[in-house]
Amino acid sequence: MDNLKVMVLNAQDLFLFMDKHNHEAVPVTELTEIKWQLMSSSLFSNKSKEKCQILANTIQDAQADIVMMTEVGGPESLANFAKYVLNDEYLSFSLPSNSDRGIDLGYLVKKTLPYEIDIHSHINFPLPYPAKRFSRDVLRLDLKENGEMKMILLLVHIKSKLDLKRADFEGRTRRVLEVKGLVHIYQDLSAQFPHTPILIGGDMNGHAGEKDTEEEFKPIYELTNLKDIAFLARIPEEDRFSYIYFNRGGNRFVQQIDYLFISEDFAHLLDPTECYFPRYKNLLGSPLPVPKRMEQKNILPSDHYPFLATLRI
User: Fold this and answer.
1) How many domains does the chain fold into?
2) pLDDT for 73-97, tens place per residue?
């Protein structure tokens, strides 16, 4: 069996446009921050060069084979990140989503993997009223070998609890419908490919763990045999977090809101010693502090930490 390292990462507004770059001039990673920003003619600012490089170093240090990435600024941004910051070591796959903020979903797949790859969108998957569609997508990636399905990945970014229009308290109605839609897609694929491991990963924007499960995520456990890989790997609870937030009073809270799920039937494929939440380092390789104050959080390359799982396939 070969090991496959799969990372879930919310890259926090990974916009990276290089349409003004003269490819015969200085390599983009040697540009100053000002010139890095001037490479783009987009209305969106490029994510800072340093933060892009730290994200890339985190992916490479973990030796991730596949990165399931949320908050990607479209196919062009992800392709530029793969080409210029990840040394062209990964293929990028992203499709436009239903996002009204331009933050889509995407995969990075190491070029050395010996698999055929197919990608499928669910932007038109019907959800009951008032949701109608996923707020982003459920982006599916198939790994095949000689035409045989080896693994299926489903990447999702569930609607946040923000309710700016004050039409759906904490987005609860939409969140419930999106989770039920995700479960439905998973059930259909499980029936179609009963001997193929299916991973669900991404930013759930809430607590989807087995303990104190938020209401909208209960269908995951009631209707499937999916399990949180961080739970299966017995990562200590104090280390099981991907997000830190501070309320208006300055109080600090840690949460796991980024997940990878797998069926209990395939839990034996996990290498629990190689499942963990990577923490960020600066460009000199020294650990960046886990934030105790808001200003420390702003230094991080993303407001989410990634999660990495290692499977034997």
Assistant:
1) 1
2) 999 999 999 999 999 999 999 999 9
